[in-house]
């Protein structure tokens, strides 16, 4: 019963995680005051940025955004990996 529910709802849950990730990142860009440079900051921050890359950034707003963005990236990427793993395992069993 739970397995069939996971198999049915799994793709929607994965889409929801991706949508929540993008909405969180968009919200963070605008709340940090970086809306003017949305495209550049948003696309660069989709992958985690190294500590050295953050240190080499000149603007303090962007540094704070990149630090927070890395935490969000790790959280959502981890959650997506776990959800994908659970979905794949349940799909393989059924």
Describe the protein in words:
By secondary structure, the chain is mainly α. Helices cover 81% and strands 0% of the residues. The longest helix is centred in the C-terminal third of the chain and has 34 residues, at 60-93. The radius of gyration is 17 Å and the shape is elongated. 7% of the residues are buried. The mean pLDDT is 93.
Q: Can I get a quick summary?
A:
The chain is mainly α. Helices cover 81% and strands 0% of the residues. It contains 4 helices and no strands.
Could you give the topology of this structure?
Elements: H1 2-31, H2 38-44, H3 51-55, H4 60-93
Main sheet record: none
| Arithmetic mean of pLDDT | 93
Number of strands: 0
Strand percentage: under 5%
Category by helix and strand content:
mainly alpha
* Total number of helices: 4
List keywords for this structure.
single chain; 94 residues; mainly alpha; 4 helices; elongated
